[in-house]
Design a protein that fits this description.
With 190 residues, this protein is of the alpha+beta class. Helices cover 55% and strands 11% of the residues. It contains seven helices and four strands. Strands 2-3-1-4 form a four-stranded antiparallel beta sheet, with helices on one face. Helix 1 (3-11) crosses helix 3 and helix 2 (17-29) crosses helix 3 (31-49).
Length: 190
């Protein structure tokens, strides 16, 4: 039993007489322990002197509040659907204004209208089949020198679509690639 347990047992009169006498000797020898025991005994006497709460009186105070019903919530959201519709309308109007006022200014000034990415300009592209022995580095270096960019492929036939900035670049690339059988096995117009 530690010191706190002994102190509680002494104050609550739960200690056997022989242990009580030994603990009383400890209290007489220690002023700090004597002060702690005195404080606990005073608190116990104070609580014992208080009258027990009257359950009937407490119930009489509580019952009217219970009979009034449930209180309403402080943040009742009467019309959440309306707020959602308002937010959706703001979003739609914002997107429409963005499309009408900002997007036309973002595109290149020389290209009016909309050009779909899925409809490439066929006049500046070649279909190329590369040799199995050609490395990716050789292919990339050659296409870089020619100004070509692989935009699609390989197809079911193993052909890659390579686009060039303009028709003269494409024609020069066709001549150069036709002279490289170690790199190109198939060369077709788009």
């Amino acid at each position: 039993m530690d010191q706190d347990d002994k102190t509680r047992a002494f104050v609550q009169d739960r200690m056997p007489p022989d242990q009580r006498a030994a603990f009383q000797a400890e209290i007489d020898a220690s002023p700090e322990l004597a002060a702690e025991v005195a404080m606990l005994q005073a608190a116990r006497a104070e609580f014992a002197a208080e009258p027990a709460p009257d359950a009937a009186a407490a119930w009489a105070r509580l019952e009217p509040a219970l009979n009034r019903g449930q209180p309403s919530a402080a943040n009742v959201n009467a019309r959440p659907r309306r707020a959602l519709l308002q937010a959706a309308m703001v979003a739609v109007i914002s997107i429409g204004l963005w499309q009408a006022l900002v997007v036309p200014r973002l595109g290149p000034s020389s290209a009016p209208g909309f050009t779909a990415a899925s409809v490439p300009d066929a006049s500046v592209a070649l279909q190329i089949g590369f040799a199995e022995t050609a490395t990716a580095g050789e292919i990339a270096a050659t296409l870089y020198d020619l100004g070509g960019v692989i935009t699609d492929g390989p197809s079911a036939l193993g052909l890659y679509r390579v686009e060039f900035p303009d028709a003269p670049s494409r024609d020069a690339a066709r001549e150069t690639l036709a002279a490289r059988p170690d790199l190109v096995t198939d060369l077709r117009e788009n």
